[in-house]
Records
---
Amino acid sequence: MLFPVLIILIFLFLLINLLFYISIKKTFSKNIIQSYETKISIIAAAKNEEENIANLIDALDKQDYDRNLFEVIIVDDSSTDKTYEFTCREITDKTNFKIIKADSKLFSGKKGTLTIGIGKTQNDFIMITDADCTPQKDWVKIYSGIFSEGFDFVFGVAPFIKENSFINYLSCFENIRTSIITFSAAILGFPYSAAARNFGFKKSSFEKIRGYSNTLETLSGDDDLLIREAVKNKMKIGLATEKGSFVYSKTKNNFKDYLKQKARHTQTSLHYLSKHKLFLALWHLLNLFFLFSPILIFVDTIFLSLFIVKILTDMIVVFNLQKYFEYNFSPLRIFYLQITYELFLILNFFNALIGKTDWKK
């Protein structure tokens, strides 16, 4: 009885990975229609970003798009540094840029800040990013093309900039694994998550789901929980997959900040739709069972085969798909990071249950 059950589990594991592999390869190989016609408003929330905001302003100013067709609104959320004053100086000669202060927020955290910015927009298409990010020059142009196809919400690829540290390697690898499953699920008609660093929507669609008012279970979730509401309202969700639309950012520098960030993200996942939570729970439990299967070799040596199948499959999938998310890990690094990543899934889950969160970005 044991052997057939394990064969079924292996088949299921391989089938899901094959679906991931095919969906990413097929979708990311397509060219997205680019457009120069849509009027777009870009919102960036900023809190103590004096050291980073110049890079964002420069990246947005260099967009390959008619500056008469897009505006940039930076919303300062009670920064205690010189973010507001510095930004005012940086945008003096940029007529389509402005900065406002997040006074009298309706909601706490970043959602309240973004709501103020969205309320000040002049256009019906909104793009969101963070103050410490670097959008590529075709970002607006590619989103314009996707919006022109009638999508209500759109999200794109948000890679981390690679640096030489363990926290950076782990964060980048998590980004690959999360992106593979997030984009695959959306491609297969099962969208559940996104990254606010590279996100957009039709303003009228945002208003139809009552903005962030139904996403207040956590401080974070200005992306994932909006996707949840869009799915509940059967809205059309598109993907920006061309490299010209990527939005880059840095990872956390230390273990403490990393754990806080992961706690926020994991807490948000506890408020996904039931079908999405069930899917993710079963997927991660299947992976963890395969990972820890060698513990059961005293029962039967066949359990070792689960671990071997998992590691080889993970290495093949990540090694061949990482290029679509702008990474280039060696097979050896993929091997140890895959194991580390899954162990940290457990740590981050329990940390999310007991940890407190606040909003910085």
---
Amino acid sequence: MVPKPQKSLLQKRIRSLGRIIVAASLLLIVLWIVLAQPSCHRNPPSNASVDPQVLRTHVDKMAVYFRPRDWLHVENLNETAAYISNYFLKSGAHVSVQAVPSGFQSSQNVIGSFNRRKTPRLIVGAHYDAFHGFPAADDNASGVAVLLELATLFGQMKNPPPVDLIAYTFEEPPHFAGPKMGSAVHAKSLEGREVDYLGVIVLEMVGYYSDEAFSQSYPMPMLYMMYPHRGNFLALVSRWDQGDWIKNVKKAMKSRSDLPVYSLRAPDRIPGIDFSDHRNYWPQNIPALMVTDTAFYRNSNYHSKEDVPESLDYHRMAQVTVSVFEAVNALAEE
């Protein structure tokens, strides 16, 4: 009998390498499914429209006329709060304010409610204060501008969804991650609540976009294999255990406009996952996420004097507004 020839060492190494590549690819696919929760769901395009120039007007008001909006300039925060309150009232919302004390300073959350006797309710929020003395056009005049135009859209409806639009104060340092954040005060006020809440959508920096190659960065290199390298999309971001809420909001937002929507659920030890007001609703067992342009992972003007109104894309901000508007309507009907 002729002995069977043995495989060469090179062949064995090639096969071993092939197995490793297949295993790594499968692992990457699993991670992508778990982290990004991809969906083929499509919605019909929205018939709603938002004027980009109106969004620009709101951003100019906050980033230019009410500057600085940090915690040491409460008079400017109060001017901003009054502007928001008046706009909510003009839209037809029921407006209330919530005091947020901080040592010798005091500011307020502004709440514009629609269909306020109906439950379960949704919350859409955005902080209106700024870091240091910076213009803070993206962070977070952009989020508040979208919040104000959401009020306009809901006010035009005969039967708007049960939603509370909340402009938060004291999100930025030195209050961030502490009990005196405006959103922390609001979330704490819901403890032992009689009203049921479906969830919270926080608008955190939604105005900066770029079509340049590799204009988008990520906290982990492997995410480049799962997400676009161009910063021309909107992201839904939250903690690992918020997967169902992320999936539901993403499903409701997809294809409502031309702006792509991606999502990330991840441990909150990854920098950026809990960097906004949504974090304060988790202890109350209310699902919460942030809608964002990914902040410092895309916008190099973050927390600087360069974060000015001229740097923002108001046409895409209008698309953000429409997408969130349609999502709130869809979620309220489920």
---
Amino acid sequence: MTTQVTVAANGRMSLPADMRKRLGLSGGGALVVEELPDGVVLRTLAQSIAKAQALARRYTGDKPESSVDAFLNNRRTDSGE
């Protein structure tokens, strides 16, 4: 969905109520703003986390030994903790 919103002089903008509801922001919430060379992307925190996880999977290939937990466990073992 594409919609036009107005940015006020103080920098505030309002997202339409139906869009906020679909995004799970009907009671308020946070958005991540990503500035790209050709524009701006707004994502919910959940969308940003999902994007980061997908990127990590691309580089780790779902290998369990590539997880943060596995890394920390290996560090503990190596350090004798």
